[in-house]
């Protein structure tokens, strides 16, 4: 697993660390997912959850860990979460320090099933998020039925947002939408200081991307305090 921080610009600290699957030779998440068959989907999903929490605990992480999950691998929310609950209890990991992200790499065949998963996880004390919002399968339609704690705006909406008026209009609309729905908004894929500053000035204080830190294999990155100060102090 690799970990990438999600920073809270306003608070000047790390909000969470996203756990990202990697191959033993450094293969990307996409390469690994391409090898997962329908028969191994459930075991793979469970293995990623367990490894992410185990490793975060071993590395002394004191922030929430964000874990991508495959909705079609969860046949019944309460049954499929038992291994996660058991491990969290064994290592003393608070459930509110686990955020499950619905990944958009697969089409959700049953929207009501996803709704049940999100509701069950929230009832147990987990945070829930929609990943890659605004790209692929993660779109506005999801928010009709699903009530996540967080939505993560996709990198495609962030590219050159400090210069692109159309992206600016969309992101400003997302700020209003998230506020009306009581959802926290994270900008992911932030790669330049100019992007980070524009987003922060529009109230998007939770950000993730290469400008702050790249995913680090089996390492928890420190808070990029100097960079956060630059974002907050920019004109």
Index terms:
235 residues; alpha/beta; eight-stranded mixed β-barrel; 40% helix
Please outline what is shown here.
By secondary structure, the chain is an alpha/beta fold.
Cα Rg: 17 Å
The major beta sheet can be summarized as: 8 strands, mixed, barrel
Shape: globular
How helical, in percent, are the residues? 40-55%
Task: Kindly name the structural category.
Answer: alpha/beta
Mean pLDDT: 90
E-strand count = 9
Order of strands across the main sheet: 1-2-3-4-5-6-7-8
Approximately how much beta-strand content do the residues carry? Answer: 15-25%
In words, what does this structure look like?
There is one protein chain. The chain has ten helices and nine strands. β7, α9 (193-201) and β8 form a beta-alpha-beta unit. The protein has helices spanning 29-33, 41-58, 77-80, 82-91, 111-124, 142-145, 155-158, 165-181, 193-201, 225-233; strands at 2-8, 13-20, 65-69, 98-102, 127-133, 150-153, 184-188, 206-208, 216-217. The model has no long low-confidence stretch (mean pLDDT 90). It starts with a strand and ends with a helix. The chain is α/β, with parallel strands linked by helices and 235 residues long. It is globular, with a radius of gyration of 17 Å. α2 (41-58) packs parallel to α4 (82-91) and α9 (193-201) packs across α10 (225-233). The protein has an eight-stranded mixed β-barrel, surrounded by four helices. It is 40% helix and 20% strand.
